[in-house]
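On clarity, I found the account of how folds are encoded harder to follow than it need be. An entry of this sort, consisting of the sequence and the corresponding backbone structure tokens, reads as follows:
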Amino acid sequence: MRIFLTICLLCFIYTLTLAQKPKDGIYTYAIAFSEWQGKPLGATCTVIIRGDSIKVVHNDTGKLTGKQGDILDQGIILKHKSGKWIIGHSIKDKDVKKIGGCSDGPSIIDFKQKKFWTC
């Protein structure tokens, strides 16, 4: 009975994890600036999801350096050991110590709040 309950619990957790990742498509996300406590300051980006691949593209809104069409980040969607979704460049990125913000680690992508975190 314990094994059955454990398997059910693991399946439930796995389902919850998958439920947070959006379906394939093109979305508009706010850009959250870490040095401004996550405020988007009117900047948004286009997020393109295909399977486990993700691309974040400058869409020329808000006060963001660069130009429309520039790739802000791209990689694979990974669940970091902290529980946050990240844009990894290697499967090993899910275990790195520092993520997001102004670190050298992978960018954080918040599917629930529809925010791409940058410095």
Remarks:
- The longest strand covers residues 25-33.
- The chain is about 15% helix and 35% strand.
